[in-house]
């Protein structure tokens, strides 16, 4: 009796598998898997038979442009040029400060005291551009640095600078 039930169950399972694998027209049915194309074809026929599967929907694409980069939370400074003689003009470009924050520019020597050159105000995006003159105090052909410090946030950044004669 148990053998007959197992045989009957196996026969029913085999019939279901066959019905799923072969379409109602006797041809193999489409197998699941990735579609060959994710874009709808302009010439592809739309399903006309009732009960047919719906046409494939196009895959959403990513935005055409990357989102704007985030402003760095760390302050940065760049000197252009990064070396110069006493009295030469250097352009400093800084970023990473709070909007409207006062930023102090300081020249550091190897063994000398620091020399506060000037204060600037950061723009609405936290950046600034300022010109400084290399002070005469540091005319010794040594590598120095220029430091910027946010007076409210105390955020700091520096960049090397070589004084030439």
What does the model show?
The chain is mainly beta and 165 residues long. It is built from 1 helix and 8 strands. The protein has one helix spanning 2-21; strands at residues 76-80, 83-85, 89-95, 102-108, 115-121, 128-133, 143-150, 156-164. The strands form 2 sheets. A 5-stranded mixed sheet has the order 2-8-7-4-5, with no helix packed on it. Strands 1-3-6 form a 3-stranded antiparallel sheet, with no helix packed on it. A hairpin with a 6-residue loop joins strand 4 (102-108) and strand 5. It is elongated and about 110 Å long.
Keywords:
mainly beta, five-stranded mixed beta sheet, three-stranded antiparallel beta sheet, 1 helix, 8 strands, 32% strand
Q: Give the C-alpha Rg.
A: 37 Å
Overall number of strands = 8
Low-confidence stretches: 32-47, 66-71
Average the pLDDT over all residues and give the rounded result. Answer: 73
Helix content: 10-25%
Largest sheet: 5 strands, mixed
Secondary structure layout:
Blueprint: H1 2-21, E1 76-80, E2 83-85, E3 89-95, E4 102-108, E5 115-121, E6 128-133, E7 143-150, E8 156-164
Parallel strand pairs: 2-8
Antiparallel strand pairs: 1-3, 3-6, 4-5, 4-7, 7-8
Give the gist of this structure.
This protein is mainly beta. The protein has one helix and eight strands; from the N terminus they run αββββββββ.
């Amino acid at each position: 009796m148990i053998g007959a039930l197992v045989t009957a169950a196996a026969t029913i399972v085999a019939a279901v598998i066959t019905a799923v694998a072969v379409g109602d027209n006797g041809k193999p049915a489409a197998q699941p898997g990735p579609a060959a194309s994710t874009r709808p074809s302009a010439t592809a026929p739309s399903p006309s038979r009732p009960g047919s599967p719906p046409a494939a929907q196009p895959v959403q694409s990513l935005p055409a442009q990357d989102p704007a980069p985030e402003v760095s939370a760390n302050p940065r400074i760049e000197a252009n040029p990064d070396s110069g003689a006493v009295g030469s003009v250097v352009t400093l470009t800084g970023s990473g400060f709070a909007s409207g924050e006062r930023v102090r520019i300081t020249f550091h020597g190897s063994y000398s005291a620091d020399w506060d050159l000037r204060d600037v105000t950061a723009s609405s995006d936290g950046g600034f551009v300022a010109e400084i003159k290399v002070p005469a105090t540091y005319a010794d052909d040594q590598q120095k640095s220029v430091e910027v410090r946010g007076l409210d946030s105390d955020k700091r950044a520096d960049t090397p600078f070589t004084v030439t004669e």
